[in-house]
Amino acid sequence: MVYRLLAVRARSRDELRQALLRKGFEDEVADGVLRKFVDAGLVDDAAFAAEWVHERQRNRGLGRKALGFELRRKGVSEDLVAAALSTVDEDDEVERAREAVRRKLRSTTSADGAVLMRRLVGMLARKGYSEGLAFRVVREELERSGVDGEPQAGEEP
């Protein structure tokens, strides 16, 4: 069963443990099986976390917060999460955010800059980008596309 799960994608030790427990394996048996996989180098949370961060940032355009949340949910220890997130290049993160904003701008029909600003910043926030980075990237991309993202007089930011 563990081989089958690992054949699909890399998994954390905790994910595999939970799968074994759901199948009715006792705690001691599950831990023993996983110890053998760890000793053989087939289960490595550090390698899993690094690969997860790289793939999810590249393919889904996720920011650090979302990546960290996903890794913690998969049972990866905090020190390994921090180590994996430290490999995220800041320039790559900014570029992924820009790509997401540009993609969204191409499919948006609204001409109201303030509405676009709110929607795009919200989208980046849901993808795990920091507030400062989200505002900066959206403002720059709206300016680049010729849209004024500043709220009009009387509107809330």
UniProtKB/TrEMBL annotation:
Limits of the RecX first three-helical domain: 3-36
Pfam families the UniProt entry points to: RecX_HTH1, RecX_HTH2, RecX_HTH3
Gene3D superfamilies associated with the record: Winged helix-like DNA-binding domain superfamily/Winged helix DNA-binding domain
Keywords, ordered alphabetically: Cytoplasm
Matching InterPro entries: RecX_HTH_1st, RecX_HTH_2nd, RecX_HTH_3rd, Regulatory_RecX, WH-like_DNA-bd_sf
Subcellular location: Cytoplasm
UniProt domain RecX third three-helical: residue ranges: 91-138
Domain of life: Bacteria
Sequence ranges assigned to domain RecX second three-helical in this UniProt record: 44-85
Family that this chain belongs to: Belongs to the RecX family.
Role description: Modulates RecA activity.
Protein name (record): Regulatory protein RecX
Organism ancestry: Bacteria, Bacillati, Actinomycetota, Actinomycetes, Pseudonocardiales
